[in-house]
């Protein structure tokens, strides 16, 4: 048996040597593609989410196991992130602090080799990308329980950045501490939103433990490191980044809580065939104006996946609508619908065509 085991381990070592050799061969191709992209456009975004999604989809479809298909995405996410970093850091600004769900959404999209820049406000995320200090920005846009993030919508009114992609991130809270032993916990600490989202669980399972509010889930995680009797309600990423143990995972009261994030860039991404387009427009103040506006989408067979309105902040009672439709702006039916609508609006701006989250 032990002979068999060491034989299998030798075999694994040989396979790993081969995987490593191939990763290096692969990296050389990535570097070469990067060079060609820069030759065509000196400020091209090297990160191409459409191609990355296609690579993962192709591999998942042909996988016969026993390696689990769910493992392919994270493995390739990191392979692509690491090889892309050879061409210089992919700088990603996001609404901080570290270990929040925005940070997790970033990791899901760009992997752990990107250079992350946590900033204090949604406005700062936009300005980091506008000034070219970051190649990409990541901001929350809507949450399944709390609705749309108005501040992000408002930023598009004055910004010329494009939507480069979207990320759907599950919001799931865990109870963490230094030792992971529940009996040691004398105090629970977290951001007020996380505490509110776990209220029932805390009342049922830890009714006598005092709960205190701090500025962020990351701060709560830091407190755990300073004091072993403190537990934090925080993300899985916080457990990893701060080296904490999980006392109990998934303690949120609503188990179906997702936040959608937008990736911002100065450039448009490649078309994929599974894209969506976001538009911002304002309409003339007259009876039936909104009905008139939406008709071209239906008549061109385009499905509208979202509509939100916000006061324009320019004139009282003037509203701006944010509309998401299926399809890419280079598709005929989208182009025609947008042309029709432009004639009916006071103003209209395409915020971007980008791959729909898969
Ligand atoms: C190599 C490319 O550039 C980047 C690296 C990729 C990879 O490692 O396969 C895929 C897409 C891009 O983010 C490419 O566009 O093909």
UniProtKB/TrEMBL annotation:
It comes from the Bacteria. GO terms for biological process: chorismate metabolic process; L-phenylalanine biosynthetic process. PROSITE patterns: ACT, CHORISMATE_MUT_2, PREPHENATE_DEHYDR_1, PREPHENATE_DEHYDR_2, PREPHENATE_DEHYDR_3. Residues 1-91 form the Chorismate mutase domain. GO terms for molecular function: chorismate mutase activity; prephenate dehydratase activity. Keywords: Amino-acid biosynthesis, Aromatic amino acid biosynthesis, Cytoplasm, Isomerase, Lyase, Multifunctional enzyme, Phenylalanine biosynthesis. InterPro entries: ACT-like_dom_sf, ACT_dom, Chor_mutase/pphenate_deHydtase, Chorismate_II_sf, CM_dom_sf, CM_II_prokaryot, G/b/e-P-prot_chorismate_mutase, Preph_deHydtase. The keyword Acyltransferase does not apply. This is Bifunctional chorismate mutase/prephenate dehydratase. The gene is pheA.
